[in-house]
Amino acid sequence: MSLPPGFLDELQSRLSLSQVVGRKVMWDTRKSNQAKGDMWAPCPFHQEKTASFHVDDRKGFYYCFGCHAKGDAISFVRETENVDFIEAVKILATEAGMSVPERDPQAQQKADRRGQLVEVMEQAVKYFGLQLRSGAGAAARDYLKGRRLDEATQARFDLGFAPDGWQGLWDHLTSKGVAPEMILACGLAKESQKGGKPYDTFRNRIMFPIRDARGRCIAFGGRAMDPDNSAKYLNSPETEIFDKSHTLYNHAPAREAAGKGQPLIVAEGYMDVIALVAAGFGAAVAPLGTAVTEHQMQLLWRVAPEPVIMLDGDRAGLQAAYRVIDLALPLLEAGKSLRFALMPEGQDPDDLLRAEGAGAVQTRVEAAMPMVRLLWQRETEGRDFDSPERKAALERVCREKTGLIRDPSLRSYYDQELKDLRWQLFNPRRAAGGGTFTPRPRGGKWPPPEPARATTKSSLLVTAAGDTHLREAVILATLICCPEVMESFESQIERMECQDPDHARLRALILRHASAGADTLRAQIEDEMGTAPLEKLLALPHVALAPPVRYPGDTELASLTLSEELAKLMAQRGVQAEMHEAAEDMAGLADEAITWRLAQAAEARNKALRSQQEDKAEYELGENGAAIKRDEKEQFAALLGKISFSKQRR
């Protein structure tokens, strides 16, 4: 529909934006200046306690410094009322005392018909409500009373009752002058297959009016009173005014409650929603008898950035949650996700409220798990990963699922989170504290390192451990200076055991952030650990002499260095393992076998020491005191020649 030139300008000139917005927010009187039209309030589009939402009346625009929502009066009504452009214009025009120009005849006719159908539906709401309060509705009233729904709650949701007759509603509406075609078009009656009079769609059922985002009744849901009825719940068929995939039960009231800071809860059915609202959880909605659809997901995110999916605590409820994950993964964006609150086994939200009260539900909502955790649970629950093939299969399926996420930044965070969880699953001893990979506590600080024990300081293994420490330092520094090579060495770095707590933390951060590049990696290390550990590492003499540190960014040099240092580190660790095993086997006097093993370990240690002395002898001081290698003819001559030539050109 096209509007006449100047209509929108006239409309917005007649309205004060602060008046339009003021229906949805509480102004901060300390920051606002009403005389200048400079108004501030907590943002209605996201949950916050501070007033970061700014309205400039003179310019006619709003802007939130928190979530960056911005627009004019029309966009504000569209977002808060969940209506399209023309509907928003109509709402504002009514406030401004203006009439919206008529649409073209065909569009106007369609709009008029929709309005007429809604009027018929509202007449049906009144009829069902009267029947609930009549003698015919006695059993239905008893049922609702048994579900702890008082009269005020029943009235709040316009609950009703459809008597057990074939034409009760049909006769009532036709007697009021409603055309039979309109009753059929609303889905309130069906044509007889035997050529007789149409019969009511809903019979002997408790009736739940289903309303759109503007609060208009567009359909019904009916719960059977007969326990033997094959269809416990029955919804209206889809009509000109009802599309169940685009509709949420209790949408409009939930949107208003969520705007006031209540958590948006997605339950499974009508009774769950009504029970939650009656218990104080006003922002509760439900899909209409089917799994959540893509359109419903978008509706949820318009109301709140992180809805809580609260499903029944049985296998069917869990499977429904898994289906929601598959639907949501391709739709995720930064700031738009889901959390999951699973009920106790065999209970739905209504059961939990009746058994334990609102506090139990609040606890479940606050403890709702992020979607990535439920995804992990689905892929690992009840399975053993005791072979490389099974571990590889888990890694593959995790990558397949995260590959569905379109947002590259969000996808990388999901990849890293699942990688951390795989590490903990495959290395339970280390994850529990016996190893080196220690993810940073959520919202916490790293624990202080334990001081060395006196027995450790006097151990004969300290010298060998010192050699190991040096190689660890070179490996970590190489990766910090050239993280581009991380992918080729990731599995070896994951298995690398770091005895130094600072090394362990650096290693964990490198594994997490290497893919982001050298600058980001260093920034993350400094953010997590401060500047001191990194400065200390790079200032160590043997680290400063390492070629990748002297020439950062050279991937060939870094790869050669890592290959060499990891191989030597593995050899040293093998020596230490032999010595430890021999020491553990000793009891009383050493026998001949143990003496032989100690001799072999000593010889291996001597070889490792000679290798390290050869390493040290490889370096000499060049011009300007820079350390260079003496013997690099086979491995590094070409690389250093290239670097030297580049330096001469500069």
Q: What oligomeric state is this?
A: single chain
Uncertain stretches of 5 or more adjacent residues = 434-464, 587-591, 616-636
**Number of separate structural domains:** 4
| Integer-rounded radius of gyration | 35 Å
Q: How would you characterize the largest beta sheet?
A: 5 strands, mixed
Strand content: 5-15%
Distance between the termini: 66 Å
Mean pLDDT: 82
CATH topology of the largest domain: Dna Topoisomerase Vi A Subunit, Chain: A, domain 2
Roughly how much helix do the residues carry, as a percent range?
40-55%
Side-by-side strand order of the widest sheet? 12-11-13-14-15
Identify the CATH architecture of the largest domain.
3-Layer(aba) Sandwich
Specify the CATH class of the largest domain.
Answer: Alpha Beta
How is this structure best described in words?
This protein is an alpha+beta fold and 650 residues long. The chain has 4 domains: 7-96, Zinc finger, CHC2-typedomain (DNA Primase, Chain A), CATH 3.90.580.10; 104-242, Alpha-Beta Complex (DNA primase DNAg catalytic core, N-terminal domain); 244-426, 3-Layer(aba) Sandwich (Dna Topoisomerase Vi A Subunit, Chain: A, domain 2), CATH 3.40.1360; 459-617, no CATH class. The strands form 5 sheets. It has a 5-stranded mixed beta sheet, with helices on both faces. The chain has a 4-stranded antiparallel beta sheet with strand order 1-2-3-4. The model is unreliable at 434-464, 587-591 and 616-636 (pLDDT under 50). It comes from Roseovarius tolerans.
